[in-house]
Amino acid sequence: MTASSPSVQIDADLTALNTFGLPARAKHLLRVRSLKDAQQACVFRSIRPEGDPGLILGGGSNLVLRGATLDTVLKIDIPGRRKISENKETILVEAGAGEPWHDFVRWTLDNGWPGLENLALIPGTVGAAPVQNIGAYGLEVAERIESVEALDLATGNPTRLNAKDCQFDYRNSVFKRTNRWLITSVRFSLPRRWQPLLSYGELAKEIAADGIGQPTPQQISEAVIALRRRKLPDPAELGSAGSFFKNPIVGAKQYAALIKAHPALPHYPQPDGREKLAAAWLIDQCGWRGRRLGAVGCYAQQALVLVNYGGATGADVLRLAEQIQNDVQKRFGVALEPEPVFV
Ligand code: EPU
Predict the structure, then answer these.
(1) Was domain 7-76 assigned CATH 3.40.50.10420?
(2) pLDDT category, 1, cuts 50, 70, 90?
(3) Where do the DSSP E strands lie in 178-229?
(4) Residue 110 clears pLDDT 50, i.e. is over it
(5) In the chain, pLDDT over 70 holds for what percent of residues?
(6) Does domain 81-191 have CATH number 3.30.465.10?
(7) Is 243 a catalytic residue?
(8) pTM of the entire structure?
(9) 94, 99, 206, 339: which is the annotated catalytic residue?
(10) CB–CB of 25/70 below 8 Å?
(11) Distance separating alpha carbons of residues 188 and 199, to the nearest angstrom
């Protein structure tokens, strides 16, 4: 390959490339640093053996590696961030898919372009943010994405998908539903007439407890960081993939029966009349919070997070997840769906 080709590592260890710290190997690990690299890597990826998932890695923070040796893994390291334009309503900024998400959020705030502060400290990369439509403290990234540049893996052609093409949904998108796209950069539309977003009760409480009347974007990001540090493990210290299960959404009839039997069940009404339930509460009620099963466990500060105490395998994680799912199903009749991607 030429000087501008992606660098290739043979027989690479993937343990440090996923925040859960699960072991797996790749026969070929390609580091992609540009659009050109991405196009060449696509060609290489297209000739992998049948059955290989052709994993595309960002920060590896929403991933459960089951442990099989993979043939071809692309690690997306495309850098860069810039302001593109502004008008009366919005500021348009762009970042390479490989930029660490939190550094990018900080850069926008440091430049005086608020709008992403509620999503501070989420692990992972800019390119991974649209894949699962990251969300926290009342905001989903879909609300700030103008468009996504991605390679069509079938043709190797760069394509710009607008927000509608991305088919965003709760922790889902066209990028997660299909394996058709490799995201190279993302454009964000940030509001010039900024308003603090304090719809999430706990965030409003945190701001009030700090004695702040009219919070600045920086103060909101600081409050979000404080909340996250309190409830979520630092991936550098304890392996995890953040929330392991999605908050389940149930129909009005099932919700009515559940809330009658469990009046304390936290729930969030959806625009379509259904109700989103707090999976963490359901798991907690089944006695799982703080429980350990060998090398894995359910985090003591947040029942929705499964953690690796050291040396865990993908099989350990799956066993624990299944037991939790079974207990929640038996007790509440609710099916929990995992949030991470299994490879
Ligand atoms: N709760 C419990 N026990 C627990 C933890 C929470 O009963 O161990 C209760 C809380 O008291 C609260 C409810 O469950 O009433 C919801 O908990 P929390 O506010 O902590 O949020 P969550 O629903 O568990 C979601 C996202 C997080 C996001 C937070 C904050 C999902 C799957 N998770 O968690 O996203 O940071 O809200 O907005 O939607 C992620 O996706 O990886 C993630 C961390």
Answers:
(1) no
(2) very low
(3) 181-191
(4) yes
(5) 99
(6) yes
(7) yes
(8) 0.95
(9) 339
(10) yes
(11) 22
Among 58, 92, 56, which residue's Cα sits nearest to residue 72?
56
342 C-alpha to center of ligand 1: Å? Answer: 21
Report pLDDT digits (tens) over 113-127.
999 999 999 999 999
The finding on whether 137 has its CB within 6 A of some atom of ligand 1 is yes
**Do 81-191 and 239-342 fold alike per CATH?**
no
Minimal-distance CA residue to ligand 1 atom 34: 243
For residue 187, list its beta bridge partners: 94, 147
- In angstroms, rounded to a whole number, what is the distance separating the alpha carbons of residues 18 and 23? 9
CB of 58 sitting under 6 A from ligand 1:
no
Residue 171 annotated to the active site: yes
DSSP 213: S
What is the CA(232)–ligand 1 centre distance, in A?
Answer: 10
As a whole number, mean pLDDT of residues 3-13 equals 87
Given 171, 187, 228, 289, the catalytic residue:
171
Structure tokens at 227: 């909340």
pLDDT (0 to 100) of residue 236: 86
Q: What ranges do the domains of the chain cover?
A: 7-76, 81-191, 239-342
Point out the ligand 1 atom lying closest to the alpha carbon of residue 284. Answer: 3
Whether the predicted pLDDT of 109 surpasses 50: yes
Residue 328 CA to ligand 1 center (angstroms) comes to: 16
Is the predicted pLDDT of residue 250 greater than 50, yes or no? yes
- Give backbone dihedrals phi and psi of 29, rounded to 5 degrees, phi first: -110, 115
Q: Among 3.30.70.270, 3.90.190.20, 3.90.78.10, 3.40.50.1400, what is the CATH number of 239-342?
A: 3.90.78.10
Catalytic (active site) residue 292: no
Q: Measured between alpha carbons, how far is 307 from 338 in angstroms, rounded to an integer?
A: 14
Count the neighbouring beta carbons within 10 Å of the beta carbon of residue 229.
12
Sheet of 239-243: strand order equals 239-243, 305-308, 296-298, 292-293
